[in-house]
Design goal:
Elements (H helix, E strand, L loop, with lengths): L3 E4 L6 H8 L3 H9 L5 H9 L14 H14 L3 E4 L4 H16 L4 E4 L12 H9 L4 E5 L6 H9 L4 E4 L6 E4 L2 E4 L6 E3 L15 H16 L5 H13 L6 H14 L5 H9 L9 H18 L3 H8 L3 H36 L7 E5 L7 H12 L3 E7 L2 E7 L6 H6 L7 E4 L3 E6 L4 H11 L10 E4 L1 E2 L7 H7 L14 E14 L5 E7 L5 E6 L3 H12 L1 H8 L7 E13 L2 E13 L3 H4 L1
Length: about 600
């Protein structure tokens, strides 16, 4: 599918702001593109820290919840924490568990079984809490849609506090929405219309963090660094916007995670081979986070909690190795499932639909969400993947910007047995005979245009290779952490000549080019993905002979435009500038070469 490239064109006095703040105008432009257009906003973006977090007392029901937790401690009663089985749920549960233990409260975490019970608070967890004589049940990263479970808790005289971040359920009639929440002692979710908390984008662990922050402040306790680390991991892994409070929480967590005092977390970092790295959002999102996710997908989350609570280094290493092995197994299963899904889509031309729905037989239900994400990336369309789960189908969806998946499912709620989620992701259960009607309903209601579904590459600014220097690259680190809604900067230059090419890496799957522009600037350019596709396209566009010339570093006709990110490569004490190519185009027409 052809990509549409366009340059962000927000206006500001980049030179004046740069002079005031001592920053390169390029850096200022990047910040303006990310919504920080005034001197004050730029300073907030760059220098906000934990002291700039909002007052947790602004969160609806947080005071009520804190008061009852104090009452439970005074009564000497225990607390059951009902969590979820993904990364956000695991770290929400662990943060609350450790916080309650620090307050002298006996607590334990219970999570649903992903396969046999599915997402959310359930009767088994409530009944176990009642049998154990718990004085309070607290949910985290779930509960906002658990109406039946909340009623069961009430019937058993079990006080319930809900902490969640998912969308608030609503009924709609004649265009009017009536929001509703389960009956509970306290419902803490900033997305409630009646909640005046300024930042609505917290993950489940972020909401739990705010509750704990309020309690600790009242108790005169300091939030330990590890709580920021937990909230940072959850925020990144749950793909939340890295803006506002999320950006502060993640920055604070990343400050200490490389030297974390949690033996399990440090063991996993070492096991994954990144102990000598400055841990970034990338390492959490693509290396550490998936290991924790694998526990809830293929085993139970108990191994994740065992890891985080282990005080013995040797045992911690064992848990870390087990988690990593689970993730390797999950990767293999995902590759097989994604290949099967794409085969079905091509065979049945499902990619012609605006909303892609695929049913996979024999697929482990825990990986359907990851496969849906793969489909979304490949076809740039909202995608839902289902698999057989007893007498129903369980599915998971991933969406694109401009299509609110949760609200779209609300329009088809009569076909759903259970569902929940938010704009970009959802989970659901349906009867097998509802699969085709659901596909028809979602596609009929979809208002996405062809332009909405065309892949778009946003370029921050064109920048010639000759402008790149170490000082600028060092400044670019101020934009960290990068992620959703705060992307890594994208620069571009057209009409680069390929001066040389070689495949490198253990598997010879990384393409290293030597490129140069018309002004005479040269630089190494790395392509970490689709190297084979690049070679095939270059050969098709210019012929095998021209590609052979590039491989032998001879003059050739290959001319390309690239989107890139600059960095410094250091090898044996020698530093060189290089770029990493994120997108490319071959310029084969005389018009493009001009």
């Amino acid at each position: 599918m052809t990509e549409k490239w366009f340059v962000e064109n927000k206006k500001a006095d980049f030179i004046s702001l740069g002079n005031k703040l001592g920053l390169d105008p390029v850096t200022i432009r990047l910040l303006v593109n990310r919504g920080a257009s005034s001197e004050e906003e730029i300073r907030d973006y760059l220098f906000s820290d934990k002291n700039d977090l909002h007052d947790p007392a602004l969160m609806k029901d947080v005071e009520k919840a804190a008061d009852f937790i104090a009452h439970i401690r005074n009564e000497g009663k225990s607390v059951v924490i009902a969590s979820d089985y993904d990364v956000d749920g695991i770290f929400s549960g662990e943060l609350l568990y450790e916080a309650l233990c620090m307050l002298g409260i006996d607590a334990n975490v219970k999570t649903p079984d992903r396969v046999s019970e599915g997402y959310g608070l359930n009767a088994r967890i409530i009944n176990e809490a009642v049998q154990e004589g718990a004085g309070l049940l607290i949910t985290c990263d779930n509960g906002i849609s658990s109406f039946d479970a909340a009623l069961l808790a009430k019937e058993n005289d079990l006080p319930l506090i809900i902490t969640d971040h998912h969308e608030i359920p609503f009924d709609e009639e004649d265009g009017e929405r009536t929001y509703r929440v389960p009956e509970a002692l306290a419902v803490i979710n900033p997305k409630q219309p009646s909640c005046g908390y300024p930042f609505k984008g917290l993950c489940g662990c972020g909401v739990a963090f705010k509750l704990v922050s309020y309690i600790f402040e009242k108790e005169g306790l300091t939030i330990p660094d590890v709580f920021y680390e937990y909230a940072a991991i959850a925020t990144i892994a749950d793909v939340m916007d890295l803006t506002g409070e999320n950006r502060i929480i993640v920055k604070e967590g990343l400050k200490t995670i490389s030297r974390t005092k949690n033996k399990g977390l440090s063991s996993l970092i070492s096991c994954c081979g990144i102990e000598d790295k400055a841990i970034s959002a990338y390492h959490i999102g693509f290396i550490l986070g998936p290991c924790f996710n694998a526990a809830g997908r293929l085993s139970t989350v108990d191994i994740a909690y065992d890891l985080l609570r282990e005080k013995d280094q040797k045992k911690a290493v064992g848990y870390a190795e087990a988690l990593r092995a689970l993730n390797e197994k999950r990767k293999l299963m995902t590759e097989e499932g994604a290949a099967q899904a794409m085969s079905i889509i091509e065979e049945r031309a499902l990619d012609k639909n605006k909303i892609i729905l695929v049913r996979l037989h024999g697929c482990h239900e825990s990986i359907v969400g990851i496969i849906a994400g793969r489909l979304k990336e490949k076809y740039n369309k909202p995608s839902l993947v289902f698999t057989d789960a007893g007498d129903c189908l369980k599915g998971s969806g991933r969406s694109i910007d401009g299509y609110h998946m949760y609200e779209a499912l609300c329009e088809c709620r009569d076909l759903l047995e259970r569902f929940g989620g938010h704009a970009l992701a959802a989970g659901l259960s349906i009867a097998p005979d509802s699969f085709e009607p659901l596909s028809a309903c979602l596609n009929k209601n979809c208002t996405l245009s062809d332009d909405d579904m065309q892949p778009k590459v946003t370029i921050d600014m064109p920048m010639p290779l000759g402008y790149i220097n170490e000082k600028l690259i060092d400044e670019l680190s101020l934009l960290e952490p990068v992620g959703k809604s705060n992307p890594r900067p994208v620069f571009a230059e057209k009409n680069l000549s390929v001066l040389g090419a070689v495949l490198i890496g253990k598997n010879k799957n990384i393409l290293k080019l030597r490129v140069g522009n018309k002004a005479g600037a040269e630089m190494d350019a790395l392509l970490f993905r689709d190297a084979e596709n690049f070679i095939n396209e270059a050969t098709a566009a210019y012929g095998a002979r021209e590609w052979e010339k590039a491989l032998s570093r001879r003059k050739n006709l290959i001319d390309l435009s690239v989107c890139y990110y600059p960095s410094v490569n250091e090898y044996m004490g020698v530093k060189t500038l290089q770029i990493t190519i994120s997108h490319y185009r071959f310029n084969t027409s005389s018009e493009n070469r001009s």
